[in-house]
Design brief:
Layout lengths: L1 E6 L3 H11 L5 E7 L2 H11 L3 E5 L7 H10 L7 E6 L5 H9 L3 E4 L4 H13 L6 H12 L18 H11 L4 H8 L3 H15 L4 H10 L9
Helix pairs in contact: 2-3, 3-4, 6-10, 7-9, 7-10, 8-9
Length: about 220
């Protein structure tokens, strides 16, 4: 059973999400949080698998809560799935960099939301790669003050691992990477795992960000 913490400051949205989630046999709502501080605390108390996190909440917002969850050793298994009203919300990009596994817009089809929870809980793939690529491409194309070059982090990767990272950055799944590079799916998965370890990335979402920041994937090329 996948345990989910629903974090949103609007009671009606929490109620709606609870009803939807509890309609699935394999997912349950472990707790409801009214702000980011509640979300972090309840994720630990309930041993949640996924936090459905609204970004814009009073007090501790979803971005800071995502940072805290990502930084906490005892919450290493918790995945954060960002909920936002707009696809082009710049906070979403910051949340991905902070450790979120992906994001959804709030008017997502109910079936897609449930499947997204399952995907993020497994940690198998980046959620909604096409939408995420568009979002990241839009924001990375804008100048960011204080942004440090990220290519230095890539020197520890082999040439094959760089190729894999680039393909992850374009949103390809392990099977698609395997087909593109003429590898077995297991070998592709192994390469992705090694890249995650070498770059200290939490999941594929952070690999996508790393690929864009390093210039391996440029806006409009994905």
């Amino acid at each position: 059973m996948i345990r989910v913490v629903v974090a949103d400051d609007q009671p009606l949205i929490r109620i709606g999400l609870r009803q939807l989630i509890e309609s699935a046999e394999d997912i349950e709502v472990a707790a409801e949080a009214r702000d980011g501080a509640d979300a972090v605390r309840l994720a630990a108390e309930t041993r949640a698998d996924v936090v459905l996190m609204d970004i814009r909440m009073p007090g501790v917002d979803g971005l800071e809560a995502t940072r805290r969850i990502s930084a906490a050793e005892d919450l290493a298994g918790v995945k954060v799935l960002i909920l936002t009203t707009f696809e082009a919300d710049e906070y979403v990009y910051e949340a991905l960099r902070a450790g979120a596994s992906g994001f959804l817009v709030k008017d997502t089809d109910p079936g897609e939301l449930l499947q997204a929870v399952r995907v993020v809980a497994r940690g198998d793939a980046l959620l909604s790669p096409a939408i995420t690529r568009r979002l990241i491409a839009d924001i990375v194309s804008r100048p960011r003050s204080g942004a440090a070059p990220s290519r230095e982090r890539l020197v520890r990767l082999t040439q094959r691992e760089l190729e894999v990272l680039t393909l992850v950055g374009t949103g390809l799944s392990n099977d698609e990477i395997a087909a593109r590079l003429f590898l077995s799916p297991l070998t592709a998965k192994t390469h992705v795992s090694r890249v995650l370890t070498k770059l200290g990335a939490r999941d594929r979402a952070q690999l996508v960000v790393a690929a864009y920041e390093a210039g391996l994937v440029t806006p409009g090329s994905a």
